[in-house]
Design a protein that fits this description.
Structural class: alpha/beta
Number of helices: 12
Number of strands: 10
Largest sheet: 8 strands, parallel
Strand order of the largest sheet: 1-2-3-4-5-6-7-8
Helix content: 25-40%
Shape: elongated
Order of helices and strands: HHHHEHEHEHEHHEHEHEHEEE
Distance between the termini: 35 Å
Length: 320
Amino acid sequence: MASSSSSSIGHRRPRLADEQEQTPPAQVPRRQGKAEEEEEETRDWTELPVDALLAVFGKLDGVDILMGAGHVCRPWRRATREEPELWRRVHMRRRARLAYDVDIEAAARTAVRRSAGRCEALLAEDYDGAPMGYDDDFFLFLADAAPMLKSLRLISCNKVFPQMINQTIRKFPLLEELELSLYHRGSIDDCLIGISEACPLLTCLRLNHDRFYYLRMPFMGGWCKCKSTEVARMRRLRSLQLFGNSIRNEELSAILDGCRQLESLDIRHCLKVRMNDEMRARFARVKTVRLPEDSMEDYELPYGSPINDFIYYSGVMYPD
């Protein structure tokens, strides 16, 4: 996607709150009952203090603010446009019903731009079937617009090449949390090159696949020793999630030896890990360990049945 079209949204989508439009004051709902109706008539929702508005808006996803709350009335729109504090944490989750209605990349640009350089956390979730989404131009923009970023969670961002992801991540020396989940545009190894040195404050890392493939190749996100070496250099790492990876005992042992401060390890559906006395002894010093066969009840992302050979299992499971 060209950067010149990034700040606009296609004709089929609803209008972003950034666009100028005269909007009427918020309509006050009337309750049943005379006393309650009189009370509601005296309440002016447009006069809510800014602090109260920010507290409410802070509970919403970025898409909900840009396409909902920001359209209610002028004071609300002004709060969403002129309060950088509201955009310190930007959550742009791609819900299925928004896939063809919203240019989520343009919405994310608007949110990050409104943070005025104060954005500290970005969750960017794309949708493989959507015609518009995060691309290389967005990541070039992000590297310059969010220098204070501490948390970067990328889910299904498969329109972006791994070299661009790597180049962008290396621009955030304050980064403490990094997620690259459901990524299959290229090798995650290429995304991680030099990250341990460029982001020395990393404490949380998530590298999750959609399912386990016994024969997953490196260019499909398969595990290789260079990835273990890079993760093992993240000395401050406290939480590591590796769902559906093809990591083996040797690579996992290297990570445990390097990440001595690790407190949480999730290797569910990492079915090449063999539990033996040596691995149990290594896990003993980690406070919380989720093993390959453990329950998926609290897993947040969609996942598929493991593929242990060339037989394809079509069933896709979703957590409650």
